[in-house]
Amino acid sequence: MAQVDACVVRKELTYEEKWQRFELGERKYGQQYSQVYFNRLNMMREQLKKAALQRWSSLQEDSIMERMVQAKDGAESVVVGILFKEMKLKPSILQEYAKHGAAMMPNPPRRAEKLYADESDALILEDETGRIQLEFHEEREILKDLREEFLVSGLIVAVKGTKTKKGLFSVAGVCPVSVLPQPTTSISEDDAYVCIVSGLGFGDETMNPLYADLLLETLKGAALADATENFKLAHVIVAGNSVCRAKDGSDKGEYLKSHKAIDRKAQDEAAFPMRELDRFLCGVASAIPMELMPGENDPVNYLLPQQAFHPCLIPDSTKFTSVHRSTNPSEFSLGGQTFLGTSGQNVDDYMSYLPPVNKPAEESAQRLDVLESMLRFGHIAPTAPDTLASYPFSSTDPFVMKEWPNLFFAANQPSFSTTVVSEGTSSVRIITVPSFSRTREVVFVNIRTLEPHVLSIEISL
Asked: What is the Cα Rg of the chain in Å?
């Protein structure tokens, strides 16, 4: 009998689900979306008052108005409210309906093709009692590096200034929540890695399937020379857009034809991307625990928060107990570190509010600024439900942050970028995860240090 000199054991990380707040119970769609904003305001109002008193230490507590209607002309005061950005280039469902009438069949927007920013844009602050337009001057205080353009619809802020006789609010400063408590847990002392991959894009005829096969073999360790090093990979996160975007028409390989009956052959072609995804997930789950998040292109509900993949879509891989089907956004703990991430719709939609940039490096930096803004303002998806489709919650807003995570990521982005946001004793690693179908790149994160690095999959033919 052959003697075994050593046995390599894959690293294991403690795992805890924290995404229950994004799960939808009984779904009702009769309520008004305005309630979402008032829920958001009521959940964050007290935090903003405390943040304002800390930020402006000379401020008297009675200067913070309980309601906007209490602000008096000519007297400096602080009001807490919801920002609304009036933008003439922003799409309007009422204008669409007026143009097309009842025959209108709206499609999900391609946000990357639309930018709403214009010189005529105006910011309005509102609460339960009214609304008032904000007037900014050259000398204004928001955040260290945060410019006025990053103030978008849906943010809850405390604004210091003076109400003018013209009915405007002259802004002296804007205060976000800025910093939230961060959970303290026991963190692994050994090096172990988490791989985050997004945009696998199964069913995309322009993508060579060998890339996905080589990625699978890399994750399992067969494509690496040093197997011992590879077995430090302890978890894989598949972060949305695992199949390609739905198409209309009769192109081979499509998996959805809107409003059209399809024959059996077309049904088989439509199911092909999901079968390929199921095969890939089985390969990963047989060796490594994994988190599976849905994305904008995947066959789940379109409204945020997107619910987990139904087991019937991936019947073979769901038999593995190592597969965790989660929501989008998703939050979970790995090795004592809290991960909070999305499949990227929140960042893409936020970018639509910002002026265009010309260089890829500038866009990468801007996307990091967007993620930092979400942290500072304490909200994962501020532009929902205005321009980002979301469920009409009647009594809560699950996108409000109550704590800062240790790692905050957005997937399906044009390129990889990262930074660290630090405030006091709190520190958050921010990462934009590139789309694999566009870049052939995945991100590895050291669970002990949260230091990321990029692995590029290349094929030489």
From this structure: 24
pLDDT tens for 142-164 read: 555 567 788 999 999 999 999 98
**Which parts of the chain have pLDDT scores under 50?**
1-2, 4, 6, 112, 222-223, 225, 227, 249-257
Residue of 358, 343, 303, 342 lying closest to 115 (CA atoms): 358
Report how far residue 16's alpha carbon sits from residue 19's, in angstroms, rounded to the nearest whole number: 9
pLDDT tens-digit series, residues 98-119 = 666 655 555 555 554 668 888 8
34-175 under CATH 3.40.1000.70, yes or no: no
Domain boundaries, the chain: 15-24+182-456, 34-175
Cα maximum dimension of the chain: 93
* 145-154: burial string, b at 16+ Cβ within 10 Å, e else: ebeeebbbbb
Question: pTM score, two decimals?
Answer: 0.89
